[in-house]
Design a protein that fits this description.
The protein has 251 residues and is an alpha+beta fold. It is built from 5 helices and 15 strands. It folds into 2 domains: 28-49 and 162-251, TATA-Binding Protein (2-Layer Sandwich); 53-135, 2-Layer Sandwich (TBP-like), CATH 3.30.2030. Strands 3, 4, 5, 6, 7, 8, 9, 10, 11, 14 and 15 form an 11-stranded antiparallel beta sheet that branches. A two-stranded antiparallel sheet has the order 1-2. The radius of gyration is 22 Å and the shape is globular.
Length: 251
């Protein structure tokens, strides 16, 4: 009897140890290596096609020459460990010049870099734009995103950093199912629905979550997570996007 009692205590201790190493917050069910958006996406049950990052930031307050843009591009290529897929595409006018190229990281992530420098009156500025596409899942998404963000943060200031999970569903998703899927994702993020809109073939649900640090003001509401759908009539496919803090540009 005493032996059985101690065996139960030992079993309980092992269970607690394993359980605590697997989860950070058992109320959210988030594993140590999981990024909050990853946990939310899995809750929808939608197969993941790609993970995108879109970022913009200011590099400096100068109107640079193409030569200087090429120097910056070389440093970025080295810092992000990019193998070039294209040559450097450049253009220049009196008050504006730009440089763009594409590369691939060792982990398979495709990266598009755009650097533009302009002068309008007394205001000069050089900006960096970064778009990435990673097909399917990442083994440690939390580390993947943190590492990429830290590398960009060291290049300039005012970093606008957005992450998006993208998948597809055959046919058009009805509004009731959009609400169900977005609800699953938002509940995992403990997000409050702050805005909902349906228009023809598109929809967007915006939420505010305490698990995501960044917040943005969109359409007079503060949000940091978006669940959107876009129906392609020609392909009869609905694209589903879960993004934080917002989906912008090509996302």
């Amino acid at each position: 009897m005493i032996r059985n009692f101690f065996m139960k205590i030992l079993f309980s201790a092992i269970f607690i140890l394993l359980f605590s190493t697997k989860f950070v917050d058992v109320t959210v069910g988030e594993r140590l290596y999981e990024y909050p958006l990853e946990t939310a996406w899995k809750a929808t049950g939608i197969p993941l096609q790609e993970i995108d990052i879109e970022a913009w930031m200011k590099l400096n307050d100068r109107r640079l020459t193409l030569y200087e843009l090429r120097e910056i591009a070389g440093r970025i290529q080295k810092k992000l460990n990019l193998r070039l897929k294209t040559g450097m595409i450049t253009g220049e006018q009196d008050d504006f010049c730009y440089l763009a190229f594409e590369g691939t990281q060792p982990n398979g992530t495709s990266v598009t870099i755009t650097i533009q420098s302009s002068r309008f009156g007394e205001i000069s500025e050089t900006q960096l734009g970064v778009n990435t596409i990673h097909i399917e899942e990442v083994n440690n998404l939390r580390e993947y995103i943190r590492d990429f963000r830290e590398k960009l943060a060291g290049l300039g200031e005012d970093l606008d950093f957005n992450v998006a999970f993208i998948g597809e569903h055959k046919g058009k998703i009805p509004a009731v199912l959009v609400r169900e899927l977005s609800g699953r994702a938002f509940r995992k993020l403990k997000a409050e629905l702050v805005n909902s809109a349906f228009e023809e073939d598109n929809s967007i649900q915006r939420g505010l979550s305490g698990l995501i640090k960044e917040k943005v003001e969109i359409d007079a509401c503060v949000a940091n997570v978006e669940f959107s759908t876009r129906y392609d009539r020609a392909r009869n496919i609905t694209q589903i996007i879960l993004a934080a803090p917002r989906a912008i540009g090509g996302v």
